[in-house]
Specification:
Number of helices: 16
Mean pLDDT: 85
Distance between the termini: 67 Å
Structural class: alpha/beta
């Protein structure tokens, strides 16, 4: 029952997850069929086939309603983009926390050693785990899926492979330690700790987490952990933060929270992540509609609808709600190269000025309104 429930839930969360369960069930079924040809006992094969059919039905059940309601949205995600060798290399690097070529080669060797060791000890288990690690990615590489040519996206589609890679690598490391120091019972544990410390030093993971901002889930950080292969960093290269943000960055973190606008829900086009690294202050996102139009209404949010419960967003026409955020400044961007869909920046600034007073800071790309007028402004600056 647990397998059936997990199958239904995993496929509902992401249909591609069903591949792993399907491969597992098919492996057991074919194994039972092979045994039946040798022993003549067909009952195990029939039982595994029945189990597979029940699991398949459980996985398909949550997809019936979406397929009936919006079949095209699901089908449109299939095909189009196909992973290649570079995709697999980048996925492997991301699985290891942003490993370089040398580290990847060492881990790959440990994976092969671990697989070989398990094959010698328990061939059926090794074959089962290798099938789970190889077949679903192979199917996806053949069929294709949207954006699957990118290492981080393909890695999300086949995330269980990361666990299997680490499992085989740990088995290989254990075998290596036992072979090198056969008389020391604690050798595998010590070797594992050494490998963990080496990986932490050889990959940028710790530094990345330490530098994280409220935008830490942005593709800018996770498209690829190696900057050389991070297309988001290349896309935003050359963008310089406003002096206003740099002044905020000189203040203690948390002392000058801000509301930022406009907000673009499409992550690759959202450059606010860069400015967060400069100012290091808490952020609430300001939604322009209905103060003024942004992106011709595309991606418009239901203003003042009780169903909208994202507490890090605020509608800018609601002055009380904006001030209730505790923010010190409302920062409005109008850089043409970053917010090209903002068609009437002067009109928006005029409307915001009627709500929040005249800006206390202005440059070629943004204006800032002091939400606590009358208090000493820690970042007030000349234009």
């Amino acid at each position: 029952m647990l397998l059936i429930a997990c199958g239904a839930l995993s496929t509902w969360l992401h249909p591609i997850a069903g591949l792993f369960l399907a491969v597992g069930c098919l492996f057991v079924f074919f194994e039972d069929v092979v045994d039946a040809t040798r022993t003549g006992a067909a009952r195990p094969a029939l039982a595994s086939m029945a189990l597979g059919l029940v699991v398949a039905a459980a996985m398909l059940a949550p997809l019936v309603a979406p397929l009936l309601a919006d079949r095209q949205s699901l089908l449109a995600k299939a095909g189009g983009d196909h992973p290649g060798v570079h995709t697999l290399v980048r996925m492997f690097s991301i699985f290891l926390g942003g490993a370089t070529g040398t580290v990847m080669a060492i881990v790959a060797a440990l994976v092969m050693l671990g697989a070989a060791r398990l094959w010698r000890r328990d061939r059926r288990m090794a074959a089962f785990l290798l099938a789970l690690m190889i077949v679903p990615p192979a199917v996806l590489m053949t069929v294709g899926a949207q954006w699957s040519q990118q290492g981080h996206t393909f890695g999300r589609y086949v995330l269980p492979v990361q666990l299997l890679v680490l499992f085989f690598a740990s088995a290989g490391a254990t075998a290596l330690a036992q072979r090198a120091l056969p008389r020391l019972r604690w050798a595998p544990a010590a070797f594992a700790a050494l490998l963990g410390a080496a990986d932490a030093c050889a990959t940028p993971t710790i530094a990345l987490v330490h530098s994280g901002t409220p935008w830490f889930s942005h593709l800018y950080y996770h498209y690829d952990y190696v900057p050389r292969y991070n297309a988001m960093r290349a896309q935003f290269k050359g963008i310089v933060s406003s002096p206003f943000y740099r002044r905020l960055g000189e203040l203690a973190p948390g002392t000058a929270p801000i509301v930022e606008a406009p907000f673009n829900f499409e992550a690759p086009a959202n450059a606010l992540v860069l400015f967060a690294e400069a100012h290091r202050q808490p952020i609430t996102l300001g939604l322009l509609d209905p103060v003024c139009s942004y992106r011709n209404g595309r991606g418009r949010y239901p203003a003042h609808d009780d169903r909208f419960r994202f507490h890090r967003f605020v509608f800018l026409d609601d002055v009380a709600a904006v001030r209730h955020t505790g923010a010190r400044y409302l920062v409005f961007h109008f850089e043409p190269h970053l917010f090209a869909d903002l068609q009437d920046a002067p009109g928006c600034i005029a409307k915001l000025s009627r709500l929040y007073g005249e800006p206390v800071y202005r440059d070629d790309g943004l204006v800032a309104f002091d939400l606590r007028a009358g208090e000493a402004s820690p970042a007030r600056a000349k234009p």
